[in-house]
Amino acid sequence: MRGVESWYGGGRLHCLKAVGLFQARSRRLTSEPHASRARVYRRPLAGRELSVEVGELARQAGGAALVRYGDTAILATATASTSPREGVDFFPLTVDLEERLYAVGRIPGSWPRREGRPSDRAILAARLTDRPIRPLFAEGYRNDVHIVLTPFSVDHDASPDIVGIIGASIALSISDIPFEGPIAAVEVAHVDGELVINPDRQAAAASDLSLVVAGTRDAVLMVEAGAREVSEALLVDAISAGHRVIQELVDFQEQMVKEVGVAKTVPDLPESPAAIAAAVTQYAGDRLQAALKNSDKKSREAAIDQLQKEVVAAVGGAFPEQAAVVAQSFGLLLKRKVRQLILEEGERTDGRRADEVRELSCRVGLFRRTHGSGLFRRGQTQVLSVATLGTVRDAQELDTTGEQDHKRYMHHYNFPPYSVGEARIMRGPGRREIGHGALAERALLPVLPPEDQFPYTLRVVSEVLESNGSTSMASVCGSTLALMDAGVPIRKPVAGIAMGLIKEGPAVAVLTDIQGIEDFLGDMDFKVAG
Predict the structure, then answer these.
(1) Which one of 80, 133, 188, 294 has the fewest beta carbons within 10 angstroms of its own beta carbon?
(2) What mean pLDDT do residues 481-505 have?
(3) Is residue 336 domain-shared with residue 434, that is, in the same domain?
(4) CA distance 114 to 111
(5) Model pLDDT for residues 369-416, shown as the tens digit of each residue
(6) CATH of the domain at 402
(7) 422-474 pLDDT per residue, tens
(8) This prediction's pTM
(9) Domain count, the chain
(10) If you compute the radius of gyration of the chain from its CA atoms, what whole number of angstroms results?
(11) For residue 505, pLDDT beyond 70
(12) How many CA atoms lie within 13 A of 11 on its CB side?
């Protein structure tokens, strides 16, 4: 026993020596230059303090900021590749929200007790951050950009979605990534006749409007909202009120950029030489104009694809090793021709006027063994929605950092490749499908009967059978049909439509019921349900 005590005493002595050595080294470490680079910026925001810490955490990322608002704390990082990704015709931006249940003091409920694939909530929050950021990169920028949002602490009175958007903007703005921000975001509620910025849980529950608006100092970039049938005037007032606060938050970020930001890299953007652009226009201009005036999506796209192949072969022969530049010039010509057709001739590719809706049709009760079904068609967009009723025990249990622990109404949206005439492997719902499903789900929530009056769990699945734009809003219409066919006493029918915008200088065209090509080559996709 004395030998054990002697060993323990010696071990304790060594431990004390080690602690002393660690403390000495710690004092030396904190005096090193990197520690002095940490900066903290603070400002009031809607009754709480917004603080931003930069220069201490995640120092090998391109840019990093720890943003605190109330008790919410999120680390936002932004990193970009040093060279463009080869062979892509899109901007490879990825936003990931790394949900951690320790942020709300919980252990994951899965068997391994560890977070797995992103929850729907995490995906929706990442998409909410992506949308206002993506337009603020130069056309043709092809470097991979990765934004990671890691919530360390989540306070449901201080929206982590808003904190994530602000954090991502700061991380990008202080980095060398050529981001043309900064941006900011706020949430706007309407409580007892007053607009409230960044409401707490109590105010949000009493509000008849929940609106998230994001933008730069000069313009609004993104709006996402749910409401209980509010007026257009109130919605406009709420957007304006939110944008005034956004302008203040942009000023706050720009001060940070002046003090701790680094010089931006100059993006390696592909250029289309004037000679190649002129040759492409001369060869394809008139034929492309004719190909565009075809109301059938499939044959129009086939004609455009064939013309592009001919252009690359013919014009590319005169400019060796420039096939990619020739294809890029053709894409720019296509965009210009579509926009000119609308702005100068007042005509769309399918022959409609700017304010004209495509032909509509619908059917209900298609299948005998389902509880309810509805087939909705708008032009060449076709969606089948099927409703199923279950008991209260069929509600979805949620294991996320969100406040909600179960869902009584679920809407699932599927977009198979055959709906656009493609053949590819199907690997379950992607981020776009989850996002579109959530849009249609949110549109129907205000008209569903309360649980105490209609004690059922409701699930609607929308199958996109044919797509030429606005399938999410067609799912709203299909969901209404399916629920009514299933005997669910919804308060009012709900419909949805996608609006678009084409703007060149002073010339502006607002498009009703946009189709795919107008979504891809236009300036706005604004989905509205009511």
Answers:
(1) 294
(2) 96
(3) no
(4) 8
(5) 999 999 999 999 999 999 999 999 988 888 787 777 888 999 999 999
(6) 3.30.230.70
(7) 999 998 899 999 999 999 999 999 999 999 999 999 999 999 999 998 999 99
(8) 0.88
(9) 3
(10) 27
(11) yes
(12) 6
**Residue 144, number of CB atoms within 10 A of its CB:** 16
Per the model's pLDDT, the better-predicted residue between 277 and 53 turns out to be 53
- With tokens 């940070």, the residue in question is 256
Who's near 3: CB < 8 A, 6+ residues apart? none
Give the DSSP per-residue string, 190-257: EETTEEEES--HHHHHH-SEEEEEEE-SS-EEEEEEEESS--HHHHHHHHHHHHHHHHHHHHHHHHHH
d(CA 302, CA 299): 5
Strand, coil or helix: 375: strand
Torsion of CA 293, 298, 304, 306, to 10 degrees: -140
Distance CA 358, CA 380 (A): 9
313-344: pLDDT as tens digits: 888 888 877 788 888 888 899 999 999 999 99
Q: Which of 150, 151, 212 minimizes the C-alpha distance to 183?
A: 212
Of 150, 179, 180, 182, the residue nearest 166 (C-alpha)? 182
Are 293 and 169 part of one and the same domain?
A: no
Q: Rounded to whole angstroms, how far apart are CA atoms 311 and 207?
A: 56
Full residue range of the structural domain in which residue 327 is found: 274-345
**Is 203 found in the same domain as 235?**
yes
For 306, the 3-state DSSP assignment is helix
Report the C-alpha gap between 135 and 214 in whole angstroms: 12
Instruction: Look up residue 85 and give its two tokens.
Output: 């990704």
Residue 20 included in any domain? no
Residue pair 470/497 in contact by the 8 Å Cβ criterion: yes
Contact indicator for 522, 498 with CB cutoff of 8 Å: no
